[in-house]
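Dear H.,

Thanks for agreeing to be a second pair of eyes. The structure we're designing against is below in token form, covering all 450 positions.
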């Protein structure tokens, strides 16, 4: 069940899933996979989707109290863990859970743990807890270090964790071999636990994007959009080759280092960047439209006649997909956005509500087609076309919105070209700031390596 759900997440919910270094995950033997935790249950799904092992999970016991959710989590290889903050009277039950975990390790199974302990929609890695290290060492001690236990760190990075059809970048790190800590653990269990935990934290910091200054989170998200658009639209990098994680991580490291070095300019740059993006939002424009390739007027997209004709010719397909998905899409959206949901839970609510609503409507609509046509073949063709036509309609609609924004910019340029020129000047200053930060940071790293 866990793998089936993870495939649906990877193939349908997210637009692109990029996995690196999954060959570092051994195919056999006891293993703990530790990952950062920014997107609730979808994080576990992404680890299952990307690795080559059948996984077991530790989950807070409150998820097992409901009969339905308890059955689902058990079927998905979930093991309840009793946290003191949930119910201090039930912590003693963890002994049974740990016995189950040790049996899994002895059978050569794989456990997925999120050592931050909680899931937060933040661009910062929380303090790593010692649970993974303690379980790994205890299992080895219990078996006289004959298990050859390993811990594999994995970084999960989302371009936008709650947006449908966003991108996920998953990167596996080097294995941490518990046998290397055999002597230390025999003499000082606590020291061995600390060393392994520090190693986990060090690895996850390399595999994820992290902000030291939480107050910069909005600013960094703006800079990420601006910088990526600049690389793509000035032909520095192709869209298909875009490495969202590397670009974001390199930029965050450089900008944070630069602002630490020059704290006096931090406030003015934050103000400049937020003012630029909010002015774009007020004008209902897109940053991609402001990129200047010269002094010419902005052009309407698509620029080529054949592209325009082809776009228009595809409208019937868009209309078909739009009509067949309109009700299910809007009911799903209303169910999600009318509830008071924590940011970190939005994606999983979108997925499960969308899965339920779309499954019902797709089934009902297919039944109607069969009822009126009395043809199983036509009903099957209709059913198979629902998801592709829905995805096509979503992409087509996105392109239409982009063209409308460009038309709006064209009108603003004709009436008030000074506004567009001012935005271009602001953008150039922001790009200049990013480039200086990256350049100075690269020089600093070069000197540090010497």
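And this is the sequence the design step returned. I haven't edited it by hand at all.
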């Amino acid at each position: 069940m866990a793998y089936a759900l993870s495939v649906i997440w990877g193939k349908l919910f997210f637009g692109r899933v990029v996995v690196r270094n999954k060959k570092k995950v051994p195919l056999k033997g006891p293993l703990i996979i530790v990952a950062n935790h920014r997107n609730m249950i979808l994080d576990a799904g992404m680890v299952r989707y990307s690795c080559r092992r059948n996984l077991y999970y530790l989950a807070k016991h409150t998820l097992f109290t409901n009969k339905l959710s308890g059955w689902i989590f058990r079927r998905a290889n979930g093991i309840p863990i009793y946290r003191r903050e949930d119910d201090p009277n039930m912590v003693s039950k963890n002994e049974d859970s740990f016995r189950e975990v040790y049996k899994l390790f002895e059978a050569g199974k794989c456990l997925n743990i999120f050592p931050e302990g909680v899931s937060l929609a933040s661009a910062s890695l929380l303090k790593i807890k010692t649970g993974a290290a303690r379980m790994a060492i205890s299992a080895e001690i219990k078996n006289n270090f004959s298990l050859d236990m390993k811990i594999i760190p994995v970084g999960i990075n989302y371009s936008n964790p709650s947006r449908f059809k966003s991108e996920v970048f998953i990167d596996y790190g080097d294995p941490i071999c518990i046998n290397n800590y055999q002597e230390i653990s025999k003499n000082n269990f606590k020291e061995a636990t600390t060393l392994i935990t520090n190693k986990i934290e060090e690895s996850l910091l390399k595999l994820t994007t992290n902000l030291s200054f939480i107050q910069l989170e909005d600013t960094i998200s703006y800079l990420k959009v601006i910088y990526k658009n600049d690389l793509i639209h000035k032909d520095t990098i192709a869209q298909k080759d875009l490495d969202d994680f590397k670009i974001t991580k390199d930029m965050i490291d450089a900008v944070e280092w630069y602002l630490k070095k020059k704290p006096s300019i931090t406030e003015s740059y934050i103000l400049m960047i937020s003012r630029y993006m909010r002015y774009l939002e007020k004008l209902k424009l897109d940053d991609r439209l402001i990129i200047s390739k010269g002094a010419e007027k902005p052009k309407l997209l698509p620029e080529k006649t054949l592209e325009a004709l082809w776009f228009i010719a595809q409208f019937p397909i868009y209309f078909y997909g739009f009509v067949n998905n309109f009700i299910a899409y809007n009911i799903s959206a209303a169910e999600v956005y009318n509830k008071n949901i924590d940011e970190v839970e939005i994606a999983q609510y979108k997925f499960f509500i969308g899965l339920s609503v779309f499954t019902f409507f797709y089934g009902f609509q297919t039944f109607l087609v069969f009822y009126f046509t009395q043809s199983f073949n036509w009903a099957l063709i209709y059913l198979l076309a629902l998801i592709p036509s829905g995805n096509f309609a979503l992409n087509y609609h996105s392109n239409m919105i982009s063209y409308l924004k460009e038309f709006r910019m064209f009108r603003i340029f004709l009436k008030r070209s000074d506004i567009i020129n001012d935005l271009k000047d602001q953008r150039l200053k922001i790009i200049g700031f990013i480039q200086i930060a990256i350049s100075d940071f690269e020089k600093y790293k070069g000197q540090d390596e010497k």
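Two observations from my side: The chain is about 60% helix and 10% strand. Strands lie at 16-20, 31-35, 55-60, 78-81, 110-113, 150-158, 167-172, 176-177.

Warmly,
E.
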